[in-house]
Amino acid sequence: MAAMDEQRERGADGPVPGERGPFPGGGGPFPGWGGRSMWRHGPPWWNQGDDTGRGRRLPWLTTLALTVFVQIGSGFAGHAQTGREALDPYARVLLLLATGVLLFRHRFPLSVVWATSGLTLVYIGAGYPYGPVFLAVAVGCFAAVVAGHRRAAWGAVGALWAGHLVIAHWLYRWLPPGDDGARPWSEEVAVAVWVVAIVAVSELARVRREQWVKERAERAQAARRRADEERLRMARELHDVLAHSISVINVQAGVGLALLDSDPEQARTALTTIKAASKEALGEVRQVLDTLRAPGAAPRAPAPGLDRLPELVEQARSTGLTVDVTTEGARAKLPPGLDLAAFRIVQEALTNVVRHSVSRHARVLVRYGVPAGSGHGAAAALTLRIDDDGPATGTDAGGSGNGLAGMRERAAALDGTIEAGPRPDGGFRVTAVLPVTAAPPPADRDATTRTAPPEDQ
Predict the structure, then answer these.
(1) Higher pLDDT, 6 or 341
(2) Nearest to 144 by CA among 63, 199, 195
């Protein structure tokens, strides 16, 4: 009941990022529930707002319902307990105060639990019938324990029980009703069990709430981590697309400017290459941006793979770089993510040759099968090796080292490795070893496309 009122008065903060329910907008059957099962991640009202209760609106609805229930229930209890004092206006005021203070149980839980225990003790000491008044103590204790005032709640309930012992077995001679005797000890056992039950339920609720808060924080952290990973993937994809195309454009623009007067035909060819490279770059950037705007949507164009290696080689040759491609082993169908990563690694390696090396000759080796030098029983892998013979230009040519970092990230995402560095005989070598997993059967290939990351698609 208290929980219902908290939900009404505090509102809801919606689903955790990354979670969607089966209802429109990712919501649930009630506003703010986010489509979550009530008991899977905790009641929504336990996951909102601050733990102190400051700033909440007062829980009028549940307090009013509890007050009406206690007043009516105490009347029925009075009819059944003929040996106790009849309910008079003073008793009604005590009952009203015991439930009325619960209106502030979220803002001042410590004061409320002691107030309900004290008013209940006065009510019992006045000889009025036992009954629903103890429900006010239970609600006050529950609110205090959940708010973190465990010892105070235990002390208040323990004081109520100790006071009841004193009244029932010593002060009863001087308290109404005057003709009653000491209460039987069996009733004290029942009261003790009731007190322990209240404390146990409150503690269970507190522990469960802490678990729900922890799970909520972990889900939010996981959602942020997924968003960061997706952002890194998109940044890596944009870098690979733009770095290669802009390098080609930069080289061809230099050629065009140098030959504009002496060889207009060659300058025209350079401009044509710039136009084609820029068009291709715009298309690939648009594809990445479309994926960002519509997460999970299928790309409009197939992602590049090693089948487009001849195009990549031709683009490199247009910059004056001669590229020799050698393929070893039986070519196998590669998973989409692996095929894309292999293409991007070769693309970035050739881009680095164009930008950072004086060599005009590069060699690309694509090997299918077990890597050379692997032990017996090693898993199949795709090996890529890109070599150039010339020394570095001595300038970074605008490079920031993101290319090698991106290649390592792509390889690591596929449990592969990247080795990059100068060769002993001069030049530079990049070697990538990417484990090959079996491609899904045709019946399952569509499902893989739907669930793969956007860049893998």
Answers:
(1) 341
(2) 199
* Distances in whole angstroms, Cα of residue 120 to Cα of each of 72, 138, 330: 16, 11, 86
* Alpha carbons 444 and 335: distance in angstroms, whole number: 12
pLDDT digits (tens, 9 = 90+) for 26-55: 444 433 334 444 444 455 444 444 445 555
Position with higher pLDDT, 206 vs 119: 119
Q: Which residue has the tokens 């894309």?
A: 340
| 60-80 and 133-146 helices, crossing angle to 10° | 140
Mean pLDDT across 168-187: 71
Q: What is the pLDDT of residues 75-89, one digit of tens each?
A: 998 888 877 888 999
Element (H, E) at 363: strand 361-369
Angle at the Cα of 160 (from 154 to 161), degrees rounded to 5? Answer: 90
**Rounded CA separation 368/414 (Å):** 16
- The single residue listed with the structure tokens 């990022």 is 17
The 3-state DSSP class for residue 270 equals: helix
Q: Which of 292-306, 394-408, 443-457 has the lowest mean pLDDT?
A: 443-457
Residue 452: what residue type? Answer: A
322: left (phi over 0), alpha (psi -120 to 50) or beta: beta
| Two tokens, residue 377 | 């029983």
C-alpha to C-alpha distance for 134 and 321, rounded to whole angstroms: 88
The number of residues making up the chain comes to: 457
Distance from C-alpha of 249 to C-alpha of 277, rounded to nearest angstrom: 7
With beta carbons less than 8 A apart as the criterion, state whether 113 and 140 touch: yes
Give the separation between CA 230 and CA 291, rounded to whole angstroms: 11
* DSSP-assigned letter for residue 436: P
Q: Which residue has the higher pLDDT, 38 or 138?
A: 138
Least confident of 34-43, 118-127, 205-214: 34-43
**28 burial via Cβ count (<10 Å: 0-12, 13-18, 19+):** buried
- φ/ψ of 60, rounded to 5, equals -65, -40
Q: First-to-last CA distance in the chain?
A: 49
3-state secondary structure 192-252: HHHHHHHHHHHHHHHHHHHHHHHHHHHHHHHHHHHHHHHHHHHHHHHHHHHHHHHHHHHHH
39-48, 149-158, 198-207: which range is least confident on average? 39-48
